[in-house]
Design goal:
Layout (H helix, E strand, L loop, with lengths): L1 H19 L6 E5 L17 E3 L2 E3 L4 E10 L4 E10 L2 E9 L7 H13 L6 E7 L4 H6 L4 E2 L4 E2 L12 H12 L6 E4 L7 E10 L4 H11 L6 E5 L7 H6 L3 E7 L6 H17 L19 E5 L4 E5 L6 E2 L4 E6 L5 E6 L4 E4 L1 E2 L3 E2 L4 E6 L2
Parallel strand pairs: 1-4, 6-7, 6-10, 10-13, 11-12
Antiparallel strand pairs: 2-3, 4-5, 5-7, 8-9, 11-13, 11-20, 14-22, 15-17, 15-21, 16-19, 17-18, 19-22
């Protein structure tokens, strides 16, 4: 009952923000039009941008939906907000809700959408606040509930594939392909509590790599992780040659203001970094890149009783938690392998042999 009440509270906040975003701008809905898949990225900046059949001109803020496909009972639509600045500049695409219960990141993205107006902006801000709308509605962790596939493992997608692949294709073709850089905002989904780090793609081009590291340093993060996760939005780096980062922070229960602000402030700093908003970005220096980390797992099944929080500093040998059996007897004591920070912790008390309990990061 408490979890349901919290979900309802979060959804009320999200709905309230969406209403605040309405304003005096036009809202459009249209089916997705496939772009030429062989197109090359544009050179130079055009003052108008086209999403499907809708042209968004200089100085406009437009919201609408792209139709992705049809489920048995409803159309599958993807919401977008495009803020086209009053002056020329880069195009930044910002995503939320690929994993639909990562509410802190969604709320951070929506906060930026509410605050930024065309008169403030040089260039274009392309926002998709909830990519996996069916997962969001169904409160489904990680997956698209129509085809039960992790939405962040099927990019760049397939216009003829199952629904998660169609969602991925629609996102890339209609939005990401038009951008000069990408932020894919994430956090902990149903089973996770994650605290303040940023993932960047593994780029061969040193200039693109440095730009991603710079974008990551716009966030108040503990560390940066360079990865090459196939099927994630990092595929934009390979497909379009654009820098892309994945900020990670939050948990569904509870949604913490600190982590909403992590996402909101990071996006604003990236906009300043690209010269799209006035002011100097606040960028962290000497952020550790790929620090040593250890995943601690359950050796026995039972109840996981965690004694530290995600983001909390820990000392070598410190007891981080225990696995107990259904009589409350200790089966396993979990200790920190070195000084560092606890992260990516388990939110469920139920543990099976081999389940991840938490990570310790050596920073």
């Amino acid at each position: 009952m408490e979890i349901d009440a919290h979900i309802d509270s979060v959804e009320t906040r999200l709905q309230g923000l969406m209403k605040l975003l309405q304003g005096n701008v036009k809202i459009v809905s249209h089916p997705r039009k496939l772009l030429n898949r062989s197109r090359v990225r544009r050179v130079g900046y055009q003052m108008s941008i086209k999403i499907g059949e809708t042209e968004i001109k200089k100085g406009e803020k437009v919201k609408g939906f792209i139709k992705v496909g049809e489920a048995s009972t409803h159309d599958v639509n993807m919401p977008y907000i495009v803020i086209n600045g009053s002056e020329a500049g880069p195009r930044l695409c910002v995503l939320g809700g690929i994993h639909p219960l990562e509410y802190a990141s969604i709320l951070g993205v929506l906060r930026v959408a509410k605050e930024v107006e065309p008169g403030d902006l040089k260039g274009t801000l392309i926002i998709v606040p909830v990519v996996n709308t069916d997962g969001f509605n169904a409160r489904a962790a990680f997956n698209n509930p129509i085809d039960y596939v992790n939405q962040n493992r099927v990019f760049p997608g397939d216009p003829e594939g199952t629904m998660s692949r169609r969602v991925a294709d629609a996102l890339f073709e209609n939005f990401v392909s038009k951008a000069d850089a990408l932020i894919d905002s994430h956090g902990g989904d149903l089973t996770e509590d994650i605290y303040k780090f940023v993932i960047v793609g593994n780029a061969e081009d040193p200039d693109v790599h440095q730009k991603m590291v710079d974008m990551a340093s716009c966030y108040d993060s503990l560390y940066t992780r360079v990865t090459d996760i196939k099927g994630s939005t990092k595929e934009a780096l390979d497909k379009y040659g654009i820098p892309c980062i994945t900020p990670e922070s939050g948990t569904p229960y509870p949604v913490r203001e600190e982590e909403i602000a992590f996402h909101r402030d990071g996006i604003v700093n990236v906009l300043k970094y690209f010269g799209m908003l006035e002011g100097e970005p606040e960028m962290k220096k000497d952020v550790p890149v790929n620090p040593e980390q250890v995943r601690l797992c359950a050796e026995r099944g039972g109840l996981w009783l965690q004694k530290v929080n995600a983001g909390e500093a820990v000392k070598k040998g410190q007891v981080l938690g225990e696995v107990v059996n259904l009589f409350g007897e200790t089966l396993q004591t979990v200790e920190a392998p070195f000084d560092g920070v606890a992260n990516n912790s388990r939110t469920s008390n139920v543990a099976n042999s081999g389940d991840t309990l938490l990570w310790v990061i050596k920073i």
